[in-house]
Specification:
This protein has a five-stranded mixed β-sheet with strand order 4-1-3-2-5, covered by helices on one side. Strand 2 (about 40-50) and strand 3 (about 50-60) form a beta hairpin. It has three helices and five strands, in the order βαββαββα. It has a single domain (about 5-140), classed as Alpha-Beta Plaits (2-Layer Sandwich), CATH 3.30.70. It is globular. It is α+β, with helices and mostly antiparallel strands.
């Protein structure tokens, strides 16, 4: 596949400067989804106890630019890149930003776009040759 069609896949961990309330998460998600739709970025955001794990996928320059703005966002600290690689295919091509609040009980009303990724029986169809990025996310799921 030509380089023009390669995507950047980036996974990072960060800490929030404060515990985010449900309405703050809703606002963050709405803005992220609108931005991601406009910039051909897809991904997954997991949140628990002031910690974020996020996967971003899309055109290299756009993902890199978004990550740079995340790194300068004062709501985050202890930002650590876990995976940064080129990929021909996206792991979550249909999710402008899948989300799961791991602090929320399973009985609570889920947010729009809520992801069941953290539930074994609801995993997306995994490609037969999924890579270290998916292994990292599955590792995180197994320990949450």
């Amino acid at each position: 596949m030509e380089r023009d069609f390669m995507h950047l896949r980036l996974v990072y961990f960060s800490r929030s400067t404060s515990l985010m309330a449900q309405n703050e998460l809703v606002s963050l998600l709405k803005k992220a989804r609108m931005f991601n739709d406009q910039n051909d970025i897809t991904g997954l955001l997991l949140y628990k106890n002031q910690s974020f794990v996020q996967l971003l996928e899309g055109p290299s320059e756009r993902v890199a630019s978004l990550f740079q703005s995340i790194c300068t966002d004062e709501r985050h600290y202890a930002i650590k890149t876990l995976v940064k690689e080129e990929a021909e295919q996206r792991l979550f091509p249909d999710w402008s930003m899948g989300f799961q609040n791991l602090n929320q009980s399973s009985e609570a009303e889920p947010l729009a776009g809520y992801s069941l990724f953290m539930s074994d029986e609801h995993s997306p169809n995994l490609p037969p040759n999924y890579d270290k990025t998916m292994e990292l996310l599955l590792f995180f799921r197994a320990r949450s």
